[in-house]
Structure formats: structure tokens, C-alpha cells
Amino acid sequence: MMTPFHAAQAERQVVDDAGTRVQVPNHVERIADAWYAHHSLLMTLGAGDKIIATVNHPQDHPWMFLIQPSLNKALSVRGVTFNSETLLVDKTDVVFTAKGNADVSGYRQAQLPTLEMAFDDFSSMKHSLLTTAEVLGTPEAEQRAVLYNQYLDQHIAEIQAKTRKLTAAQRPKVLHIVSLHPLKVDGSGTLIDTWIRLAGGTNAAGEVKGNMKEVSPEQVLVWKPDVIIIGAGAGTLAHSDYAQLFQSLPAVQQHKVWQNPAGVFPWDRYGTEAALQIQWAAQKLHPELFPDLNIVSATQDFYRRFFGYSLTAEQAQRILAALPPAKKR
After folding, report:
1. Residue-wise pLDDT tens digits, 172-216
2. Cβ pair 141, 47 in contact under 8 A
3. 183 and 133 belong to one structural domain
């Protein structure tokens, strides 16, 4: 049974990424988003200002809150659980969660239209963006989803045209570390594995399945990565417990330990800035193949085009260095 508020508005059905048919209001204006990365999809679709409840925080994602300042006024929770009664009082139109979120059944029992979202490669990310646009139900959202997907496809094709010819010997072994304490890496079957391979590398942790998998430092020594990319917020290898132990690794010897850029969301993870990540990673791994790419300009263009925000060159450089916005003087 639906609440009178939602019963009066529920006019459409959308199939979420878990395959569930969800009845959503014809006009979606108030959104609770319980998946950290999904905020970037809503912002890309021009709907960031519709988020009235968030699991993100300015200290964790300062660029997100700078570029979408309305988030500073949203209900903010620690963890990924909202109080259903609070969402009902706030007249929430829809709830987005990551697939498998344990609170989904509770939200649905409270008659809150709830959609589970998920993607682990570019194809499923494009589908998830189109599904989100369908939930929003506006021509603008649909158009922005199509434009983003075209942008992503174009850059995938341009990069693939150059990296597909690389031999196995020309593809460096790339280890993506998401956490140094404890030591966690991203393996196969992930978006991270997808962009590593597209950019012309091989995943040093390819034998591991899934995201954020804990491994031993001894295993890293066995893998002998040529490149190490460290996720935003993980700290630096030089200040970790493994600084001495990893000195013998080719990546350390060749000074190829890099911090991953982080903007609205960490580029390496599950947000729309993955379209910038593939350009950054391809040029870092194979600068000779991409001599004309100006990643600072590409970053500025992307943020203007998809987030409606004009970055200065200095701001773009800070994002590329995984630094927060500069403090106002």
C-alpha cells in the first residue's frame, strides 16, 4: 500500500540495476542518495540540486561540495542508512542505493520508491546513467545522459585505437592500491581493472577478484608491479609501513608510484569522472602514444560540460594532484 503522497504521483515504472520494477513519481524533485559514487551521476545529469539526503561529507569529498554547494544543506548521515520516517517527513520522491544495500527492503516497506544501482564496467555504467535519467524523467536528463555516453564512447575508442596494438611486453603491470592500512587492492571484474587494461596496462592483481581486497605485502613483492597507483585518501607509499619493504619493486625503482586524481569523486572509482581517468591513465602509462593530450584542459572542459562548473587551471591541477580546493585567503 502506498502513502497518499506517493500514490498521487506514482505514474511510471523503471527497472533498476537489480532488475526490480520500481514505481516512481512522475515528477522527481527530492532525492535521497545512499550510494557515494551515484552523486556524480546525478550531478552529471544536472540533478545534483535535487539531493536532499546524502551519505557524502565535505571533509571526504570537498570538490563535490564546492561544485554542488546545495549538498551542504542536505540531510547528512554517517554510513549508508537513512531513517525512513525522516525521509517521509521530508517528502522524499525516490531513494537510490548501491545494489545489495541491506536497507532497501525497509525503505520499500515504508513505501519509499527505492532503486538499487550498480555497475562494474563502462557498459553497465552507461546503462546505469540512462536508468537514472529515466527516473528523473526529464528531457534534459535524458539528453545529458546521451551526451555523456557519447563522450565516454569517443574517448574509449580513441584510446583503444592506440593501446590495442600494444604487445604483452609493452603493457606495464599496474597495481592499484585503494588502502595502505590495511593493504587493499582492486582485482579483476572491476571498473578499475577495465580502465587499467584500456589504458594499456595489465592488472598486477588480476588473479584477485573484486574491489578492495586485502592482500599481504609479500604478495605485492611476488607481483613485482611496474606501476603503482594509490587511490585518493590512502596516503603515500613513502609514509607507509611498506616504504622499506617495497624499495625493490620496479615501480619504486623507476619512480612510477602515482597518486590518483580525485575531484567530485575519486576518478579511479565508480563515478562519471572515469571518462577522465582513462585519459589520465593512458597518458601516464604511454606518454609517447598521447603527446597531444592536455589533461588540465581536458579536466576543465569536462567539468564545464558535465558539472556546469568553470575550473581554473590551478584548480584542475589540484584535482590532478588529489589535493583539496585551496583555502580562501
Report:
1. 999 999 999 999 999 999 999 999 999 999 999 999 999 999 999
2. yes
3. no
